[in-house]
Specification:
284 residues, alpha/beta, D-Maltodextrin-Binding Protein, domain 2, 3 domains, 6-stranded mixed sheet, 5-stranded mixed sheet, 13 strands, 40% helix, 21% strand, signal, Lipoprotein, palmitate
Amino acid sequence: MRMPLSAVRRFFRVSYTSILALTSAFTFACALALPASLAFAADASTLKIGTSTSPQIEALKIAVREAKEQGLDVKLIEFTDWNTPNAALANKDIDVNYFQHIPFLENAKKQGGYNFVAIAPGTIMKIGLYSKKIKRFDELKDGATVAIANDPVNGGRGLLLLQRAGLIKLKPGIDYRATTLDIVENPKRLKIVQLEASQLARSLDDVDLAQGYPSFIKLAGTTDPNSALLFDGLENRNYAIQWVVRPESANDPRIRKFISIYQHSPAVRAALDKAFGNLYAVAW
């Protein structure tokens, strides 16, 4: 039996309309699902954190383990110098770095042309003047060799500490940006040499006095980190280590979550206490 032509036309109109409706519904469902899947992929991606090698690494590793238990995958990347972590952040090889204070960051931005922001403070570390050859500053001989950091910011911090020790006098009103050119009095005619900050701890056998960082002193094992002849204080929060990111990552929920874990974990705090004792303070 042949179907009338009008019936055939109605059949195809209904079928086409049904197929179109199903296709539209499927497309709409996919459109709804796509952003969610992309968001999940972003949340599930590995967070890469760069830091400098120091005893603080153990506290960071604890935070990494706790983050994993909370569903956040984190990779900790150690650098042996203070230049590569910023280059790696600029190149997007890492998502955040944690090793520098505000004065160091501002100098790095100026010199490297970086567009970075500090989003949260970490710990403040003391620095000190260390020696394996003298016990008091008045034992320092004329012409003695003194080592300070060679970067503009930490070198200035070392010079300020030498001034506090009464060994030199700087231009009035000078701050952490001091250089050796700002020395106006040097009664002992000290020979001031500048070394990479991370290498100062290993210079103690070769110089009479050295600016030192307890974390690097402990790592090198060259002397007791608590044995400095003079420490600077922990009151200046400008020297707090910062969590630093590119501007577009300032509100990355993965980074914010990790920082919160680090700041609120009792196990992290215990690891910091074990590593640094009274040589550090928290700035959050």
